[in-house]
Write the structure tokens for this entry.
Amino acid sequence: MDDEQDQDFKTAIKIDRFKLDTECEEFASVFHHWSEEAANARGLVDRLKEQLELLEAQKELHYRAKPPEGVKVTEAVISALVIADNEVQALQKQLADARDQYYTLSAGEKALDHKGKQLDNLRHLWIAGYYATPGGRKPVDDAADAARKGLHRRTSQEDHE
């Protein structure tokens, strides 16, 4: 991932618990975007793998037909020549970079899946009134506590009379 894409992803996995409605509304499209990126990266890996196999086969045929002077042609030598070929090495580097990108995006998909689960958890907390007051208690609980304290004071006063 480049720096801009990395920053976009970090923004995508953050949750603003004060905007759960917006987070939930946008989650599916954000998840789809990054899943599509991962799928495209996987497709690139597959295409580069096929290109590498084709290039290796072509190079093998080339080295068998026209081996370098003074080299005895054996399976091991042909294999070594193919591996050492500059074009093959360049394509292997491209494939390695594409795999790194795919693995990063795949891990990102898992992070977004986790975000979806956390959004669901936060939704349940919100419905249960966890965020209803600064202390996380429902106003009904506070009123019940106040009533109990008042009843306790009144009972204590009656006992002393």
Notes: The chain has one domain: 3-128. The helical segments are 3-13, 20-65, 75-84, 86-127, 139-160. The chain is about 80% helix and 0% strand.
